[in-house]
Amino acid sequence: MKRYFEFQDSKSYKFWQIEIEGSNFTVTYGKIGTAGLAKVTECASAEAAEKEAGKLVNEKTKKGYVEKMEASSKKISKRLSLTYDEAEDGKTLLEKMEAFVNGPQAADTEALVIGAWEEAYETSPTEALTLLFNSASKLPNLREIFVGDMDSEECEISWIQQSNYTQLFTAFPQLERLHIKGSTGLTLSDAPINHTNLKALTIECGGLPKDVIQQIATATLPNLEHLQLYLGVEDYGFDGSLVDLHPFILTPSFPKLKHLGLLDSEIANEIAQVIATAPLVQQLESLDLSQGTLSDEGAQYLLASDAIKRLKKLDLHYHYLSNDMMKKLKALPLIVDVSDQQDIEDDWRYPAVTE
2-68: which CATH architecture? Predict the structure, then answer.
């Protein structure tokens, strides 16, 4: 017996397969389009193999893996990025973008990742993005865009200079996934956002400006399933409050939303208190309040919520919870990630991602 599953979010596109042969089963996993890695497990009997395989299948489906009759085809993706040496030699992201949009790969590309550009802590990718938006007709199959895929050695997350994405939403009406890293100088849209096909939106930063939060809160995104927002701290751009998050929490404005992430926050306890009884939770499958300053005070509201118990996954990793609270949360009838406990005796508590 062979069963095949796939998982997709704003960062991942991977498969997981299990095949039972007698008292053994083989698990194969990896990125879509690759052969993946295989692991064989020997069990005491065929019945034991089926039982253990069933447990693994349940774990994967709870994490969001979807069973399919056949494997999806490999995505055609392109990554544009400048190395340090290229930047030193005077090369630019704009030059690479020009070569790409005018080259033979553009028409077939489904996913575009933009990494480091020249002096990302001082200059934005605006010129290259403007060219990309103006060249949309040359990229009819583009469905995913990730701008700012760089590590801290290339540029600290809170230093990344971002751009204005207003034109993107009209240029690429078929876009399904948008991931932006960095929020300095970020404008999501100067006009009300109305995009029919966007399924996933992630903004990863050290501090999310209130203006951007409001642009998302007032957006019309009828097919949005995955929303992941790093809130961060005031020193790096977060100038909002709990009230600015109410449209996401108290008024379910995205009818197909299944995953909400409000993470990396100094107000994690306040968010937990409001969201624990919010109508929105009724439609969610997973909730991410990780990488913030969540303590027992906020976790108690989650623990007492019947709606939270109906989720498939609750991600709280990187937290300031006591051992007793961690134990109580792990006993809930869902997957709860309470890894990476911080020093709860420390008077100063910080989110995980700032600079």
Answer: Single Sheet (2.20)
